[in-house]
Amino acid sequence: MNTSSVDVAKLPLMLANLRLPTFARLWSELTQRADREGWPSARLLATLCELEMAERVQRRIQRHLAEARLPAGKTLDSFDFAAVPMISKAHVMALAAGDAWLAKGGTILMFGPPGSGKTHLSAALGAALVEKGLRVLFTRTIDLVQKLQTARQELALTAAIDKLDKFDLLILDDLSYVHKDQAETSVLFELIAARYERRSIMITANRPFGAWDSLFPDKAMTIAAIDRLVHHATIFEMNVESFRRRTATEQRHSATVATSASDIDQRHRS
Q1: Which residues, other chains included, contact 57 with Cβ-Cβ below 8 Å and sequence gap of 6+?
Q2: What whole-number distance in Å separates Cα of residue 125 and Cα of residue 134?
Q3: CB of 44 within 8 A of CB of 31?
Q4: 238 contact partners, CB below 8 Å, separation of at least 6
Q5: How far apart are alpha carbons 139 and 170 in whole angstroms?
Q6: Among 250, 257, 233, CA closest to 83
C-alpha cells in the first residue's frame, strides 16, 4: 500500500465508519505523544486498541446495567452483613466473583420476612455479576408472571421464555406475592422447567417451601418446581428482624433520648 496517498484529514471519518469512538477521540493526542517520546508504531497501535477495547467493555456494562432494571443503590458494599449474621460474607463474595454456579444453571434461594434484606442482597449480587460482563434481569415475580400469561394467551409463551435465555441470571423478587387463586401460575413452572440446568434463577420469598402450595395449580407441580430449584441451589435463610422496623425503632429511641436530654437541659437552665 502506498502510505503517501493516505489522507490523514479523513481519519476521523474513517474511524467513525469503523465505529471506533475511542480511537477517534484519542488518536491525535496519542500520536503527538508517540512522536515526542519516540514510540514504536506497534506500541502506539496497541495502546489505542487497548483503550478502545476497555471503553467498549465499559459501554457494554452500562448497557447491561440499564437492561437489568436493578433497584438503585443496592450494592454489596452497602449491604449490612453484620445485621444478617447467618449470611457468610465470604460465601456471597465468592458467588459474586465466580461464575461456575451460573455455568451449570445454579439457583440461589433467599428466604426471610419482609425487610430482612433479601431484595438488597439479590440486587447487589446481580449488579456485581453485570460488572463481570454477565447479563441479568431483575423483576418482581408477579410482573413477569403477568407478562408470560399474556404471551400464553397470544400463543407465544415458548418464544417469550426463549427470549429470556439471553440473561445468564433471572432475579425473581417477592415470589410469595404470587397466588394461584389470583392468576394461573403454571407459566411460572414452565419458566423454571425451561431454565433448569441451563440458565440460572435467583428467587426471594417471604415464605418457606412448605407454604408454596398456594403458588402453583396443584401439589404435583409444586413438588416438581421445588425439586428443580433445589437441585443446584444455594439457600440463604435470612430470619432477622426487618431492617425497616429496626431503623424506625432506633429513630424513635434517638428522638426519645434527644427529647429527654433537652428536658434535662431546660430544667438546669430554669
Answers
A1: 133
A2: 11
A3: yes
A4: 84, 86, 87, 110, 111, 112, 116, 117, 118, 121
A5: 8
A6: 250
Q: CA geometry: angle at 90 spanning 85 and 95, to 5°?
A: 115
Cα(158)–Cα(148) distance, rounded to whole angstroms? 9
8 Å CB contact between 168 and 64: no
Q: Please count the residues of the chain.
A: 270
C-alpha 200/C-alpha 191 separation (Å) is 11
Q: Are strands 169-173 and 136-140 parallel, antiparallel or unpaired?
A: parallel
**Phi, psi (degrees; rounded to nearest 5) at 88:** -80, 120
| DSSP category for residue 138 | E
pLDDT tens digits for range 48-71: 999 989 899 889 999 999 999 999
Q: Give the pLDDT mean for 73-99.
A: 94
Question: What torsion, rounded to 10 degrees, do the Cα atoms 56, 60, 66, 69 define?
Answer: -150
Looking at residue 159, its amino acid is A
The x, y and z cell numbers of residue 68, run together, are 437489568
Q: What is the pLDDT of residue 214?
A: 82
Question: Who contacts 233 (Cβ-Cβ below 8 Å, separation ≥6)?
Answer: 106, 107, 108, 109
Provide the residue type at 214 as one letter.
Answer: S
CA distance 190 to 195: 9
Distances (CA, A) of 264 to 64, 109, 267: 56, 51, 5
| Single pTM value for the model | 0.79
Contact 137/70 with Cβ under 8 angstroms? no
Strand ranges in 169-238 using DSSP code E only, listed in sequence order: 169-173, 200-205, 233-237
Residue 100: Cβ within 10 Å count = 9
Q: Which residues pair with 169 in a beta bridge?
A: 136, 200
